[in-house]
Amino acid sequence: MTCARVVSGAGPDLVLVHGWGMNAAAWGVLPALLESRFRVTRLELPGHGESGWNGEGSDPTRWARALLAAAPPRATWVGWSLGGLVALQATALAPERIVALVGVASTPCFVQRPDWRPAMAEETLAGFGDRLLNDLDGTIQQFLALQFHGVKEARALMRRLRQDLARRPPPRPQALQAGLALLRDCDLRLRLAAVDRPRLWILGGRDRLVPPALADALPEGVRVHFVEEAGHAPFLSHPEAVASTLTAFSTHG
After folding, report:
1. Contacts of 69 (CB under 8 A, 6+ apart)
2. Residues with Cβ within 8 Å of residue 190, at least 6 apart in sequence
3. Catalytic positions, please?
4. Which CATH superfamily groups domain 5-252?
5. pTM for the full model?
6. What are the helix and strand counts (H, E) for the chain?
7. How many other C-beta atoms can be found within 10 angstroms of the C-beta atom of residue 207?
8. Which of 250, 212, 251 is nearest to 231 (CA)?
9. Hey, where are the domains in the chain?
10. Cβ(85)–Cβ(214) below 8 Å
C-alpha cells in the first residue's frame, strides 16, 4: 500500500510525517515556511487522512514500507511523535534513502521500562486505548488538548488544529488502535543509536507526552534543540523557530 501525500515547494526533498490521530493538515503553517527552500512532501500514516488501511496492524515495518513507497528517493525525514517512530523504522529499513533524520516531540521508546524512565507511564497510554473503544471523538479531543498543555494561547491553537484536521478524512478506528500498540510496544533505541546519518531532536520544554528529560537519554551524536515554551506540537506554537531550526540543520548538517 502507498500512503497519501501532499507535495509543495521546490528544492531539496524534505518529508514530514505526522503523529497519531492526525493527517497532513496537522503541520499548520510550517510547510509554507519551508517550501521556498525545500520540496516538502507531507505523508499520511496508514489509515490516517486519505491513506488506505490494508490491515497493517501494529507492525512498524509495514507502516514504514508504506511511507517509503510514497516518499522521494532521497530526503531529510522529519517525524512528529508517532511519525518519528515510523520514520526511524524507515531509516533502519532503507538508510540509503535518508539524508538526515529529525524527530519532533518524538522518542525511540514512548513507554517507561525498567531501564528507560524518560517516557510516559504505560497506564497513561492504556487509558487512551480503553477510552478509544467507547468514545472515539472524545479520546481524540482529549489527545488534542494534551498537545498544548501549559502553552500560551492553547485554546486558539487547539481550535485551529481541529479546523485544519477537519479538511481531510478522519483516521480509521483500526489504525488508531494499531498506532497505540506501536507506541506501547516499539523500542527502537538501538536502531536510533545505529543510524549513521545526521540526527536532530526538537523537543518542547512543556511537553506532557515526551518528557524533556529525554534529551539526556538520547544516544551520543543526536543533536537536541529545545523550544522551551512549547508543548507536544512545537511547530504549531512556534512555527518560525522550528522552520529556522530545520532549515539550518538541513543546510549545514
Report:
1. 1, 2, 3
2. none
3. 81, 207, 232
4. Alpha/Beta hydrolase fold, catalytic domain (3.40.50.1820)
5. 0.96
6. 10, 7
7. 25
8. 212
9. 5-252
10. no
